[in-house]
Amino acid sequence: MPLFRTLTLTSAIALAAGPALAEVTPTEIWDDWQSLLANYGAEVSFDRTSNQGDSLSIIGLTAEFAVVDGSSSWDIGTLTFNGNSDGSVTVVMEDEMALTIAMSGPEDQEGSVGMTMRMPGAEIIASGSMDALRYDFDYPTIELTEFTIEGDDVPDDIPVEISIAMSALDGFLEFTDPDTRAYISENTIALITMAMAFQGETAEQGAGAFNLTMKDLNQTTTGTMGTIAANMSMAQMIEAGTRQVGTGTHGEVTYDFNIDTPDGSFQMAAAAMSGEISGAITDNGISYGGTTNDVTMSISGSTIPLPPLTFKMAETGGTFAIPLVPGDDAQPFALAFKIAGLEINDMLWGMVDPVGQLPRDPINLIIDTSGNLTILEDFTAPDYAESPEPGIPGTIEDLNINALQLSIAGAELTGDGAFVFDNSMGMPMPTGVANLMLTGGNGLLDTLVGMGLVPEEQATGVRMMLGLFARPGEGEDTLQSTIEMKEDGSVLANGQRIR
User: Fold this and answer.
1) Cβ of 118: how many Cβ atoms within 10 Å?
2) CB–CB of 133/178 below 8 Å?
3) What span, in angstroms and rounded, lies between the C-alpha atoms of 135 and 365?
4) Residues 22-65: pLDDT tens digits?
5) For residue range 196-248, what is the model confidence (pLDDT) as tens digits?
């Protein structure tokens, strides 16, 4: 969490600082940058300044930010602001800068992560006025490398190599309201790569590697930048004015992971052809969603007692939205998950169904829910997580099952429902109705019995249970069920009390 907060904080400041500097002279730009960094809680220091014509250089510049349980320090080196004849300002940074994140943990444990950021040939131009600042950037490459990890619990005999790189990052960030720091940003990235590998000094320590590539990323974001401080929770950042709505797409994604130990090996590889991502920081919370298309995956290795497995998915994804800001009123939440068109390789099917009695249609799973929560405590605050007896963070007021679908081996279960909750007794007590329909269930059960996978007596018990909870539907091999929960705690199935 400290590393995530540090990278998020410093990235926001780096983006925000550029366009805020689009002033008439380099000196005014530098003054504005210092003011902005101070607003974000940074301590800025430098060795000296140098003025040459319309150019101002800040030499020996460092910026340090306090983060939860530690600090992050940027060794920027020399930063130069060049005034251009058209009224714009070019910001020139060194090709390399160093970043160090220091953290402390329980029982006086300490650790740090260091890295070098390389960005040769970067072009950054600020233009416009204080009322409408625009920041255009073009980075041929950005690379994070030379990672060092030190700490009380970090073994020094298993070196880890990490590198992260981006190619052809370009776009703009434009402020539309200088008072609220409202902005719009668009950027594209041609390629992102990540590689991590470790190699123990002895065979017992093993070795492993992870590689990731993403192509053709596009992103559009609008929002406002509120005040950020190290001890702020996400809820407090929202209350301070942070807002963001973003959408993005990406092209092909591939990743692979492998590990070798004295106990055996394990390999996994996956690829997706495209995807969409959306996210938001709203007035009361956060939301995130994404869809990945045309996924393939393979798993193998001596540590799994199965032959190599391969899977395909036409689509997979999900969404969630959760309120974070405490208040007396109920606030909406949502949670959804989807797998569409899951295909399993014939080798795995053949292990359970060698003669092909089961339909091998693609598997689908959809769960879509929404409702309202009352948030009682700021559970994103560090002191909440560290409290020995944290209070109840919130209560659920109502829940809607917008869609439920599971189709596999010729059978399909669908449903929906709606419930409200009484929280007056300490335990949420639901009242409401759920509607379920099962098609092809008896046919699947008969096939499993015929294959010897389910004993006849167990199948008889399942049919008896279905008879208690379900009634015949309109179609062939169709069962329907209406489950109703009453305020007195009773439960009815198709009008018959079962509890």
Assistant:
1) 16
2) yes
3) 44
4) 355 788 778 777 877 776 778 899 999 998 888 999 999 999 88
5) 998 776 667 778 899 999 999 999 999 998 777 767 888 988 988 889 999 99
**Which residue in the block uniquely carries the two structure tokens 């992560």?**
113
pLDDT for position 12: 42
pLDDT tens profile 447-489: 999 998 899 999 999 888 888 888 898 889 999 999 999 988 8
Residue with token string 């600082």: 17
